[in-house]
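Submission sheet (multi-component)
Chains listed below:
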Amino acid sequence: MVPMSHYLIVSALLFSIGVAGVILSRNLIIMFMSIELMLNAANLTLIAFSRFLNLMDGHVFVFLILAVAAAEATVGLAMIITIFRNRESIDSDHFSLMKW
Amino acid sequence: AILVLFLFVIMLLNLRGEKFGDKKPALNRISKMTLVTFFFLEFMIIIKQMTFPQSIDNSIAPAAADFGSVKPVAELLYIKYIYPFELTSILLLVAIIGAVVMAKKGKEDNGEED
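Outcome: structure written.
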């Protein structure tokens, strides 16, 4: 039986990789994929706790979170398309109008 | 499904390669690497300090025979969590409408919404 700490360490590592992707990347699509990775790392934590407390509620949470993540991905990608249509670039360094 | 969405968008945008050096990046590479390293270190420190009592791993009840299958999830989803379930369906509908409205090609004269 795999101890629970292993699941949590994997989830923490996935989350850190997601954060690294958001911070290090200038491409909007890569940043968006890293955000989805962070979301799925949290899902993994929920599943791990659900397994080790022997409750099915974690599975239902993950189900609903995945549905919300799909909706958010749709809207986010529509926004990226609109940004690209107006600015002809998806490099996040080009969108620094509000920076002093 | 989400991956397929991403692929569609990437193909739609028809990107050229990254144009290097046309603008100075706000955070240069060294500070970015430092930030990420500190984040990793913080996670590792927190995880090291977590002491999982051995009783968790030993005294959990063995999982029911149908633990991860469809039936218990469906029982919970439709009985106890029916309210979030319906709200999520409305949320998905709203997201679809919003995405279609945003990504639709308007008129070229900065489309007046009618």
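Remark: The first helix of chain B runs from residue 2 to 13.
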